[in-house]
Amino acid sequence: MSTTTLRRRLRALTAAPAYPWLTGAALTAGAAAELVAFPGSPTNAAAILFSTASLMWRRAFPPVALATVAAGLLSFGADTSLSIAVMISGLIGCYVLARHRVLHPALLVAGGTLGAVATNLWHILSWARDDRLPDVPALGNAGSLGLFAEAFGLSAVILGAVSMGDAVRAREETRHERALAQAQLIAVERRRAAEAERAAIARELHDIVSHSVSMIAVQAESATYTTPGLTPQARDGFQQIAGTARDSMAELRRLLGVLRTPQRAETAADTAPQPTLDRLDDLLAQHRAVGGSAELRVTGQRVPLAAAWELSAYRIVQESLTNARKHAPGARATVELGYRTDRLTLRVTDDGPGPCEPPGPGGCPTGHGLTGMRERAALVGGTLTAGAGRAGGFSVEAELPW
Q1: What pLDDT shows up at residue 129?
Q2: pTM, two decimal places
Q3: Helical H segments across 2-145, by residue range
């Protein structure tokens, strides 16, 4: 087994939810066995068991490690012998406190050192009161520094455990920051790739669609002057074709601007205004000019709406009339607008053959236009349904609340 694989398995083991409970329970069982083999005072036994058992909650509530370390120092102060279970629990407690930054590492080391010194002084006082032991050497005499060996040893151990926990925390923060920076870099690269793709699409639209639509406008405009014997109706038809082509060119330029410079398009003030419901009469006139029949019915008091609602309603009517011309040529269309207190209702119906079943390659519409209309309605929190009309034909109904 390679070192990398072993490290990965150990990391997965320590990250398991049951890991702190199992290790805390195992250490508590070991402490109980040690107390049976080497019994001590009730205070010492209670402090040892509390110090080890509290580690089971170290991940759910890291500050509990403060009680773990304090109980370990208390058990050592109640008995001059330091049990193996308490040494392990104390090291783990100091590591957890630094790893989760319960307190600043400097405060942890300072507090642990004070606790170690206090425990050491308690042992010295207990030694001085015990007549069975030799007299405590005075400070400055030979062997007096050895009295503080416990404090030095415990302080060094606490410093090592806190340093290790803080180092692991710093390493994980560095790994997290590196991963975040890498994710941001990938996002920037993807955004740039998307912008490059949008620019490529814009070039294709400009080179192909823009050229074709402009040719339609020019040829329709020139046909009114170069074609002899045109009736007034035919002349008006050519003018309508030219006007529609010019409107399409204007919207195409706006679309190309969005594709090329998305950030600028959101705040640009020099773009043409989006169509609103005030232009429905012009839209219906264009529908009639190409052979369709349409009627507009408005109920309620006309109120100005936000631009998103106006544009969504206009596009739904536009797409509905386009579908009527495409799939029910010659049918009579009716556009009904209803201004309510909290919503705009919209219905576009025709008296054509109705929905085509099943949709697909057999000549029936595939539903892309309906999907677009539903997305328009959902954009402002509304709903749209389409299908067979109540009196036959096809019906599109939408509700746009505000």
Answers
A1: 65
A2: 0.52
A3: 3-15, 19-37, 42-53, 64-78, 84-99, 105-129
